[in-house]
Amino acid sequence: MKSMTGYGKAVVARDGRELTVELKSVNHRFLDISTKIPRAFIAHEDIIRGGISKVLSRGHVDVFINYKLDGETSKVVTIDMALAQGYVDSVAKLAEAYPQLRNDFSINTLIKSPEVMSLEQAEDDQQIIREMLAEAVDLAVANLNAMREVEGNKLRVDLLSKIATVESLLAKVKEYAPQVALQYREKLQTRVQEALQGVELDQNKLANEVCFFVDKSCIDEEITRLTSHIAHAREILALEEPVGRKLDFLVQEFNRETNTICSKSSYLELTNVALAMKNEIEKIREQVQNLE
Questions:
Q1: Domain carrying residue 221
Q2: Are residues 21 and 87 in the same domain?
Q3: β-pairing verdict for 6-14 and 17-26
Q4: 1 lies in some domain
Q5: Are residues 279 and 209 both part of a single domain?
Q6: Same domain for 11 and 142?
Q7: Rounded Cα–Cα distance for residues 174 and 180 (Å)
Q8: pLDDT at 274 over 70
Q9: In angstroms, rounded to a whole number, what is the distance separating the alpha carbons of residues 73 and 71?
Q10: Residues 12-49, buried b or exposed e (16+ Cβ, 10 A)?
């Protein structure tokens, strides 16, 4: 089980070249890869995306790449001869037009003229670049995955703790559930007696009314389903595979059953426990959003 949050870095060096790949991931519904790479690596983006997608299934991943060549081979000087000739011809025309001015145009002046001389990245062996990139991406993904697994195990422990809290609160719900009918019977009997003002109460009708209410407010099914969901959640958390989507769906079912318990409850203590359970389930939902 893995978190979707992590960081991985790898450095690969070969023949005066050094390639650094850094990966940073956060939670996302799907696998979303964002590359922040030098222009020279755009043609090799398939290697980056392929290396990440074969290991990760969800999360937003930012990719950073830094590439260095040694000082002797990394740069080349280029001269635009046509532009240089244009400068020379133009200066000659000016000298002819203004003979009274001293012509101090020289080679040093020419090479300082805009865009005559430029420094560019040397052409590199693209096959070597692809091999280095594939190796660096695989190593960075492995390091990223290792961190995501560490974070995932921390989340597992935290989620199991929160699920245990929900289970203990559910035990209180079971304890308070029978009190709902007793409380309703007492309240109803008191109100009817006050209304009748001494007239004998028909116990059969009272019993029917209480039975109708108990049937309408019964939460046995919700308790049974929540108990099953808790067991299922523990089974999912024991898996060593992406479980985020499964748990996300299951937590929705936790919420549905707890909401029903709250809506059916007229017993204050039971309502308070159900609300505490809802609060804990919301914490679980927030944590599940970080799981792959």
A1: 151-288
A2: no
A3: antiparallel
A4: no
A5: yes
A6: yes
A7: 11
A8: yes
A9: 6
A10: beeeebebbbbbbbebeeebebeeebeeebeebeebbe
**Is this model's pTM higher than 0.90 or not?**
no
pLDDT tens digits, residue range 128-180? 889 999 999 999 999 999 999 999 999 999 999 999 999 999 999 988 877 76
In this structure, is residue 165 part of a structural domain? Answer: yes
205 in the same domain as 86: no
Q: What is the mean pLDDT of residues 177-202?
A: 60
191 φ, ψ (degrees, to nearest 5): -65, -40
For residues 134 and 17, membership in a common domain is answered with yes
Q: Which amino acid is it at 105?
A: F
Please report the pLDDT score of residue 110 as a whole number.
Answer: 86
- Does residue 61 share a domain with residue 13? yes
Whether residue 52 is contained in a domain is answered as: yes
Does residue 108 belong to any structural domain of this protein? yes
Same domain, yes or no: 43 and 140? yes
CA 49-156-162 angle, to 5 degrees, is 135
Give the pLDDT mean for 228-234: 96
Domains contained in the chain, number: 3
Over the stretch 201-226, which tens digit does the pLDDT of each residue have? Answer: 556 655 565 555 555 567 888 999 99
CATH number at residue 137: 3.30.230.70
